[in-house]
Amino acid sequence: MSEREWRIYIDDMLRFAEKVRTYSEGIDRATFQQDELKYDAILRNLELIGEAATHVPAEVREQHEDIPWRQVIENGKAGEGDERQIKLRFQSLGAAQCDSRMHNHTRRFCS
Predict the structure, then answer these.
(1) 3 state SS of 90
(2) Residue with more model confidence, 75 or 71
(3) Domain locations in the chain?
(4) CA pair distance 44, 42, nearest whole angstrom
(5) In a 10 Å sphere around its CB, with 0-12 CB exposed, 13-18 middle and 19+ buried, how is residue 12 labelled?
(6) Is 76 left (phi over 0), alpha (psi -120 to 50) or beta?
(7) N- to C-terminal Cα distance for the chain?
(8) For the chain, is the Cβ count within 10 Å smaller at the N or the C terminus?
(9) How confident is the model at residue 96 (pLDDT cuts 50, 70, 90)?
(10) Of residues 20 and 109, which shows the higher confidence score?
(11) 78, 108, 102: which is closest to 90 by C-alpha?
(12) DSSP string of 11-76, one letter each residue
């Protein structure tokens, strides 16, 4: 895969992460699970981030070990009904970790 192609996936990940941050701003876990629209939108974007992450070459992921690639990819594969995975996904939202950490690090890919 060319460098240009995998950078498109990084751009997608950033866009999806920004949506997650916007949709999850100011909500607690109970709200996350009760508000069907937010729940579906957040989970879908986490899935899309995970899917896009699978297209980032392993050598690029290895150069950026501070990004939790395995967790990002696993969040994208989890079934919606799995309570353990829902907890993991919600934890990914806390303090905008998933978004801002990825955004800060992946910005380097796009420069």
Answers:
(1) helix
(2) 71
(3) 3-110
(4) 5
(5) middle
(6) alpha
(7) 19
(8) C
(9) very low
(10) 20
(11) 78
(12) HHHHHHHHHHHHHHTT--HHHHHH-HHHHHHHHHHHHHHHHHHTTS-HHHHHHTTTS-HHHHHHHH
Alpha-carbon span 49 to 101, nearest angstrom: 13
Q: Count Cα neighbours of 21 within 13 Å in the Cβ-side half-sphere.
A: 15
Q: Of residues 10 and 109, which shows the higher confidence score?
A: 10
pLDDT at position 105 over 70: no
In this structure, what token pair is assigned to residue 104? Answer: 């800060």
Residue 100 structure tokens:
């801002």
pLDDT grade for 75, boundaries at 50, 70 and 90: confident
